[in-house]
Structure to design on (324 residues):
């Protein structure tokens, strides 16, 4: 699969945030959005890894040159010479609500708009352990971290979107959500922990969250769309926690069955910038095509209950309470 960036219009210095952008799918998402002219903020929990990713992206992206300025995405249409590509790192540990709030404060201090938020970061099949706030790690990092981040940035997204060009929230789930079960009475998997079950539940929660977010944005009349993407089976570091036998099989078959991280990023990029999705929200995308997610993900009552419970867990006000 080859990603042809020319099919997408330049982004005129629009601003994007990509979580987990230092490696894998996130890295290639950041790189390609930057090539299209976006000011991209790479959010991650490892400073040295993040700064190295920024260096590499600038080096690989036309020798660090682009058509847009680094001033929060303000376009310089009269520039005779290209200026530095706008990519930067900001620390954000999605396993810590304190860190997420600090990240949002740092971002707001820049007085930037926000046109695209890509909720990409995640962990997979980790042993039973908790986040800084005491949440099961799959649910706490993959889902609750992105739930809180999105909600704290929601006003900025609303202010940045326009009737002709909506702001966009793109959330990365996976086909694993099809076998996921949402246990509202045991979201922390305390009764019986299974790495596979906990991971699948977090990915299903992200789909439910996306559909509920779109419902609320539509009801509010906001120019913000929310879509969820499935990158497919991608050869990334997420598989480091699988058993040794699976690692051997993966090593032997990756070239045939697995996408490269760049190929895996293609649907996220498509969701972020494609004109075909202007004003379109509440859909599940796989290989840049609209696809039906699992039946239970369309249960509006389940979406609402998860959203309400998530607000309680992250200690934020429920923007959807008036919709109950």
């Amino acid at each position: 699969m080859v990603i042809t960036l020319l099919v997408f219009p330049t982004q005129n210095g629009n601003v994007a945030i990509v979580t987990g952008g230092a490696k894998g799918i996130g890295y290639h998402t950041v790189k390609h959005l930057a090539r299209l002219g976006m000011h991209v903020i790479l959010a991650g929990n490892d400073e040295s890894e993040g700064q190295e990713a920024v260096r590499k992206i600038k080096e690989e992206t036309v020798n660090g040159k682009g058509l847009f300025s680094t001033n929060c995405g303000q376009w310089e249409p009269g520039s005779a010479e290209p200026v530095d590509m706008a990519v930067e790192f900001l620390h954000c540990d999605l396993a810590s609500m304190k860190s997420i709030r600090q990240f949002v404060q740092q971002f707001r201090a820049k007085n930037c708009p926000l046109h695209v938020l890509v909720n990409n970061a995640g962990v997979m099949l980790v042993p039973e352990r908790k986040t800084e706030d005491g949440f099961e790690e799959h649910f706490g990092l993959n889902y609750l971290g992105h739930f809180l981040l999105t909600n704290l940035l929601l006003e900025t997204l609303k202010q940045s979107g326009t009737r002709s060009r909506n702001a966009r929230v793109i959330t990365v789930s996976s086909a694993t959500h099809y076998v996921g079960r949402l246990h509202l009475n045991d979201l922390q998997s305390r009764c019986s922990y299974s790495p596979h079950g906990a991971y699948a539940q977090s990915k299903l929660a992200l789909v439910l969250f996306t559909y509920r977010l779109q419902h609320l944005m539509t009801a509010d009349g906001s120019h913000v769309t929310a879509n969820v993407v499935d990158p497919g089976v991608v050869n990334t570091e997420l598989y480091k926690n699988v058993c040794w036998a699976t690692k051997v099989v993966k090593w032997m078959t990756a070239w045939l069955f697995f996408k490269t991280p760049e190929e895996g990023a293609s649907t996220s990029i498509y969701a972020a910038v494609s004109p075909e999705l202007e004003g379109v929200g509440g859909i599940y995308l796989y290989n840049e095509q609209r696809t039906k997610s699992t039946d239970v993900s369309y249960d509006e009552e389940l979406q609402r209950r998860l959203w309400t419970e998530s607000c309680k867990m992250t200690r934020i006000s429920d923007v959807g309470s008036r919709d109950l």
